[in-house]
Amino acid sequence: MSRTNTIVGKAGKRRPADLPSPFPVDLSLLSAGALKKHLLSRYQLTAPIDCRYFARGLNDTYEVTAGRRRFYLRVYRHKRQSLKTIQAEIDLLEFLAAHGLRAALALKDRRGEAMHLIQAPEGPRPAVIFAAAPGEYIAAPEYDQCAQLGAL
Q1: Burial status of residue 140 (CB atoms within 10 A of its CB: 0-12, 13-18, 19 or more)
Q2: pLDDT digit string, tens, across residues 65-118
Q3: Where are the alpha helices (DSSP H) in 1-142?
Q4: What's the pTM value of the predicted model, to 2 decimals?
Q5: CA 61 to chain centre
């Protein structure tokens, strides 16, 4: 169902606009400020807290700083990946860390949950906040570095 909006004409009188409202959305960009409030309500984070949009790819990523720590909030696209697949990613990172490998672990909220849903205009989008990966970023790894990673 569509609603009729109104627009203001030249004489200052309102008249109906032929625009459906709301317009369907396939992919929204969530407000970093609203996400910051959401994170504060769910997680025990150290102040000061900042949240800023970082990158769009298969997911939307937001950089979150809390005190001296850095995290990355990954907001998955609506219906792009199953909750089971996302949980498997979280479980794999925990498995790697438990076996001595450095991994960017998911932060658990006050209820002990790592994944939650955010209601976006296009529908629910899963979200997970990960600790920043330990170590250094290597833009162009050398052959032996790639071999070391492959040996893991």
Answers
A1: exposed
A2: 999 999 999 999 999 999 999 999 999 999 999 998 888 999 999 999 999 999
A3: 32-42, 83-98
A4: 0.77
A5: 5
